[in-house]
Specification:
This protein has 747 residues and is an alpha+beta fold. The chain contains 24 helices and 28 strands. The longest helix has 25 residues.
Length: 747
């Protein structure tokens, strides 16, 4: 009884509450979420016990904020993994703790794990109640020697991983703080190794194998294809594992019958199962597909944005090439166009018409925050195709769905049939694209049109290795009898442009990379991808390499890129690991080079309808200047000129916000005056980038009755000169909030 009373005392009850928050809840949730793996449990115990030792009997001002911060990280981490199948990187820390991110991620469906949130909240409340019962004089923090126990566990985790590395996803192996700390230490180690090796920055790295245009294979068709038109159907976020023929071909352990109707169509055409997606994010996937080049293999400014300053390279993209050869070119998507500047990037690629959500006049079947639901989208697309078929010119049409983008949306009957909204949305898309392809066949379009079905990126599959990089390519051609049902070999988005041009026997520009899906090759090829924080490369000779966030690389003997049963050969770090990263960095510079100066113009002079009330920084954004990289030690100048179009007498209220990794950041932006019919707004301001800013976004928000026109929204970044630095140091601090260098406002 004395022993029981001792453990029920306030002191030990507080200790038990801390253990519950930092150790027991993570361990139990790991098991319930299906993330069971010895390394993960060891990481949870090590980090949880370390926090318990450090916070036991500390003051409320120290313990409570850290407990709340821990709970937010834990919950947001689980939500992110459930939604997009990846664990955060170091640069996502602000992204995860931002309440706006959490609210947007769970829009319409609430938290996907409300019991976890409830358990964390109750635990903190219980801690506060117990602390109030405790006498302040009785509080005695644990001795410092107790820290040795969790530190020993962390050291054991590192040693075990080195001797027997796991192939599981990051969240199976790491608690989130452990992962973030390990990543930071690894980056520091890499910097030290680079410094000690005296390797000059920017040393030349051979990337010829990745940039090569290879049309030396044996053609599958005896002559140019008979199709008159080309239709590219891009499905938001769909991994190749959702197609049963892909799973069967690669012997994947994934057993979900997720998209039966598209799987049926995959059995009718030529399916490429070992198909690599090179990155996350729609604009990056579209760039790789349509411009025959690798997208950025990091979170830097998308190459699609950089394309706006490179008209020569733009003319080599597939739409521009098809237009030069007599095709009318069209791009149609279910979402709005301004986000990430697709209203400018797609025309720059060579599309004659670029249309988004505003084009659709047919009624949607359900309300979705990003745009048209998939069924309504394909119904509208079918009517658009019928219009194209009336014209004399051949045409190229690229379609982009949005319904399987987070937050996932589906009708009530689908939500009732499936365990979560994600699978319900995928099933809804499967029926929608199945109906669409059935209609195309019934109308005879498959007899004169090359149809390609693929996805822009993969939203991943929990517990499935490589799912974040696994795509698919399905070709339906008039010459289907001459094509194999299953295309052998490793291909990826970088190959799509060369493949379409090769099908029509059109010349392929030399700057295009990749191979043709319409050819057989007797030898392998080098190919690379960066998804879910992992840089992966296949050398085309049976060697697959994967480098994680700690810059630790593992080699496997694998005939293909997507292969769950490859043979582990060992791990390496140091110079060899840096070489792969340097190849990725060289590929990232294919459009802009190493020049830190850059200028982007995001104004398109088209009327933009305002809403009487704005509700969302993303859906209501009026400019497409998102996810830019602003290099360190540079200065950025933003210039805006805005005019009113049919505004009422009250005018329009405008606001410009800035975000980094989707989180609000403070930049000294001058307030924007009210915009009226006779009083345009013109603003210019400058700020410094002492450190590199990545995933940096501008959000121009407005509300009013009528429309506006952006005549100018330019973002210019140049290196800081000695005179700029001197002027900055001489400027009183009160006049330079948040490193502001200068500003000018007039209307």
């Amino acid at each position: 009884m004395r022993f029981l009373n001792r453990w029920l005392s306030p002191n030990y009850s507080v200790l038990l509450t801390l253990c519950s928050l930092f150790i027991f809840i993570p361990l139990i949730s790991r098991g319930l979420l299906g993330w069971s793996q010895p390394y993960g449990y060891l990481s949870d115990i090590a980090v949880g016990s370390l926090l318990t030792v450090l916070l036991y009997q500390r003051t409320l001002l120290i313990a409570l904020p850290l407990m709340i911060f821990w709970s937010i990280l834990t919950l947001a981490n689980v939500e992110l993994i459930s939604a997009v199948g990846r664990m955060p990187e170091v640069t996502d820390l602000h992204y995860l703790t931002d309440t706006q991110f959490v609210s947007r991620s769970t829009h319409g469906a609430g938290l996907s794990h409300p019991l976890l949130a409830f358990a964390l909240l109750i635990n903190i409340a219980l801690y506060l109640l117990l602390l109030l019962r405790q006498q302040p004089a009785a509080r005695q923090p644990l001795a410092g020697t107790w820290v040795l126990a969790p530190l020993t566990l962390l050291a054991a985790h590192a040693v075990l991983q080195y001797r027997a590395p796991s192939e599981s996803d990051q969240w199976f192996q790491f608690n989130l703080p452990h992962k973030l700390a390990a990543e930071g230490l690894s980056n520091g180690e890499q910097d030290l190794q680079s410094w000690m090796s005296n390797q000059p920055p920017g040393a030349p790295v051979d990337i010829a194998g990745l940039q090569q245009l290879d049309l030396d294979g044996t053609p599958l068709l005896r002559q140019a294809g008979r199709a008159r038109n080309v239709l590219i159907i891009t499905l938001e976020g769909i991994p190749g594992a959702y197609l049963s023929p892909s799973r069967d071909a690669l012997r994947s352990p994934y057993d979900g019958n997720t998209m039966p109707r598209l799987s049926h169509w995959a059995e009718q055409g030529m399916l490429t199962a070992d198909y690599v997606l090179h990155s996350h994010q729609t604009i990056r996937g579209l760039y790789s597909m349509l411009c025959g080049d690798y997208a950025k293999l990091d979170s830097g400014t998308p190459k699609g944005v950089e394309l706006l300053n490179n008209p020569d390279r733009s003319q080599q993209c597939l739409p521009a090439q098809m237009r030069q050869n007599g095709f009318s070119t069209h791009y149609l998507q279910g979402a709005g166009l301004r986000f990430m500047a697709k209203d400018q990037i797609m025309p720059q690629m060579g599309f004659d018409k670029t249309l988004g959500r505003d084009w659709f006049s047919n009624a949607p079947h359900l309300k979705f925050p990003w745009g048209m639901d998939d069924k309504g989208f394909f119904e509208g697309s079918l009517s658009y195709i019928n219009e194209l078929r009336q014209q004399e010119k051949p045409w190229m049409l690229t379609l982009m769905t949005v319904g399987t983008h987070q937050p996932y949306s589906a009708p009530a009957d689908y939500l009732q049939r499936f365990p979560d909204s994600k699978l319900a949305a995928v099933a809804y898309l499967d029926d929608a694209v199945g109906d669409f392809l059935d209609a195309l066949e019934k109308q005879g379009l498959l007899k004169d049109t090359l149809v390609i079905v693929t996805s822009d990126e993969s939203h991943g599959i929990e517990n499935l290795s490589l799912a974040s990089a696994w795509g698919f390519n399905l070709i339906l051609a008039p010459e289907q009898q001459q094509l194999p049902r299953l295309k052998q070999g490793i291909y990826g988005h970088v190959d799509l442009t060369a493949s379409v041009l090769d099908y029509f026997a059109l010349p392929v520009p030399n700057n295009i990379s990749g191979r043709s899906l319409l050819r057989d090759y007797s030898h392998g090829r080098q190919i690379i991808s960066y998804t879910n924080g992992l840089l992966r490369e296949h050398d085309g000779k049976g060697l697959f390499t994967e480098c994680d966030f700690q810059h630790v690389c593992r080699r496997y003997a694998s005939p293909g890129f997507i292969n769950d049963k490859s043979h582990y050969l060992g791990r390496f770090t140091g110079k060899a690991a840096r070489l792969l990263s340097q190849q990725a960095e060289r590929l990232n510079q294919s459009l802009r080079g190493a020049n830190p100066s850059q200028r982007y113009q995001f104004a398109n002079h088209q009327p933009i309808e305002l809403k009487p009330q704005r509700t969302d920084d993303w859906a209501d954004n009026l400019v497409g200047a998102q996810y830019l990289e602003l290099p360190e030690n540079t200065q950025t100048t933003v210039t805006m000129k805005i005019r009113a179009v049919n505004l009422d007498a009250a005018g329009a209220t405008l606001q410009l916000k800035t975000k980094e990794y989707d989180r609000d950041v403070k930049i000294a932006i001058p307030p924007l005056p009210t915009l009226t019919a006779d009083q345009p707004v013109s603003v210019s301001f400058t700020f410094n980038n002492l450190d590199t800013r990545k995933a940096f976004s501008f959000h121009l928000l407005g509300q009013g009755n009528g429309a506006i026109t952006l005549d100018d929204f330019s973002v210019t970044t140049t290196p800081r000169t000695d005179s700029m630095v001197a002027a900055q140091s001489e400027t009183p601090a009160a006049e330079t909030p948040d490193e502001e260098a200068s500003e000018d406002l007039h209307n």
